[in-house]
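Example (one chain per record):
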Amino acid sequence: MCVDNHAGHPMVVEDTQQDPRFCDYPMVTGQPHIRMYAGAPLITPSGHRIGTLCVTDTQVHPLSDTDLQTLQDLAALVVTELELRAPTAS
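Predicted structure:
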């Protein structure tokens, strides 16, 4: 699911079984039976997309604005931590 999120903004799928992009995914039809997915892109300060921070649930539910903002804040924190660990050019 994370690889399908090519946009530069968060993606939320409240019910994966009702979404034609994901309803046939093995992790939706079988274990762990993902029903809700939310992902926020990890974008470096130079604009490179390096991945997605995602959360899933086995129950259908929407995310509140606060939940979505928290996910975006955590994604930004992940990028900051990765940048701190990046080797510096000499």
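Caption: The chain is about 30% helix and 20% strand.
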